[in-house]
Amino acid sequence: MFCFQCEQTAGCNGCTGKRGVCGKTADVAKAQDELTGALIGLAKTCGNNPKTADTDRVIIEGLFTTLTNVSFNEETVRVMIERVEEEKSRIAPGCGTCVAKCGNTDNYDMEQIWNADEDIRSLKSLLLFGIRGVAAYAYHAMVLGYQSEEVNFFLYKALATLSMDLGMEELLPVVLETGKVNLTCMELLDRANTETYGIPKPTEVSLKVEKGPFIVVTGHDLRDLKLLLEQTEGKGINIYTHGEMLPAHAYPELKKYGHLKGNFGTAWQNQQKEFADLPGAILFTTNCLMPPKESYADRVFSTEVVSYPGVVHVDDGKDFTPVIEKALELGGFEEDRQYKGINGGEKLTTGFGHGTILQAADQIVDAVKAGAIRHFFLVGGCDGARKGRNYYTEFVKQTPADTIILTLACGKYRFNDLDLGSIGGFPRIMDMGQCNDAYGAIKVAVALAEAFDCGVNELPLSMVLSWYEQKAVCILLTLLHLGIKNIYLGPSLPAFLSPNVLQYLVENYQISPIGDPKEDLEKMLG
């Protein structure tokens, strides 16, 4: 196998051999490459043949299936390949029997990318990993009934581009276009979530697990959580969020359920420790799955495109009866248990989306002009297991008392239980939501720039980002599309960035690797 799409890739170079650091086997990695090649073939087929809504769904689901920590199951990946092949045959039924093959609909051999010139490999990897992230966001919007033809069209274009013999000058514009399209996709998802579940409101979330049966829901999918809440209502089962599901507590249409009690645990990489011997059922709705340990494997369930061998899967019918029955069988804790965050806090606060912050825009602007707020820091992104991520905890702890920390995604668990006080009625740490909610942070930055009649790069705002997987890649490309500079990125730079591509990003956008928290902070406040 060869895979270097996530931050934890072996030796900061690439996972090879029989198994990747994430836990997927070489056979699964090979199948995912075959799936990607088949998706490229389907995209090329649609160049001369009309696609349908079903084709769009196959493209989006197929790309999402190849995201890190989604599927560890070769069987389900190959079922997805079959769906792609069936769709291709339906779109162009004559190609399978054609005696004069043109090659336009052939599947693509991904080895051509992995063995290409390092700069071409780098740019094509940026493009591929970027659209995998876009597809994840498109998927969440799609299941709520929201789609964008602009986003869908670009996924076909990008896939077809991967098969072309192009130079750096031709590839770079398509890579940067990924960021533009992802902005459209994140706006679509934001609208889908808020129109379906209401505008998030600041909400305090308990870290206590009450006695009795319970289910822990992890991943990102709000629709799955809503369906589970409906099916468990009145059954004496409490529901707890985990990881990226924490912001669900802020949505009016979800928080109205009294048995949505609180949050359990921290970020995804701690699940094998936190779930050990847990007397409750665990539902994985999207990416963030780690190979389950034997001590809790019998109580893990998956849905959507998540798949792991031996784990019970809830199909599109969304009958969560097996999950409910397991929770009742396990019975939960006999007494309430108070858990704590990484820094010892017993509660978290979420719900500071752009709707809430922009309502107080005048108050914030006045506080900046009066000198009460000196600087804003966006400290967010993916968490992970690699050493060096304590940087984000130390950085936030050292921020001056007259600064605000905006945060989102699961990287916030490094510091979101800290009590840093408030400024003028605003808590110094404001959780804006999931990685899916990065659009909100961009919207706030743009609004502040308009209020101060300046560019985003002229604001008293610094971005300190952590990355792990492909959604972080497409968000970074969106920031570059917007011309945002001086981003600090860590804990390590992506292995798929060649020296020349990295130099381009440094020269044009002044991207910097994180270093010492104190020294970086001094530079940002300089």
TrEMBL record:
Subcellular location field: Cytoplasm
The entry's keywords: 4Fe-4S, Cytoplasm, Iron, Iron-sulfur, Metal-binding, Oxidoreductase
Cofactor note: Binds 1 hybrid [4Fe-2O-2S] cluster.
Swiss-Prot/TrEMBL cofactor(s): hybrid [4Fe-2O-2S] cluster; [4Fe-4S] cluster
Entry's Gene Ontology BP terms: response to hydrogen peroxide
Keyword Signal: no
A GO CC annotation given for this chain: cytoplasm
GO molecular function: 4 iron, 4 sulfur cluster binding; hydroxylamine reductase activity; metal ion binding; peroxidase activity
Family matches, as InterPro entries: HCP/CODH, Hydroxylam_reduct, Prismane-like_a/b-sand, Prismane-like_sf, Prismane_a-bundle
Residues recorded as bearing Cysteine persulfide in the entry: C382
Reactions the enzyme catalyzes: A + NH4(+) + H2O = hydroxylamine + AH2 + H(+)
Binding positions ([4Fe-4S] cluster): C3, C6, C15, C22
Residues annotated as binding hybrid [4Fe-2O-2S] cluster: H220, E244, C288, C382, C410, C435, E469, K471
Major enzyme class: oxidoreductase
Coiled coil residues, start to end: none
Similarity field: Belongs to the HCP family.
Function: Catalyzes the reduction of hydroxylamine to form NH(3) and H(2)O.
Annotated protein name in UniProt: Hydroxylamine reductase
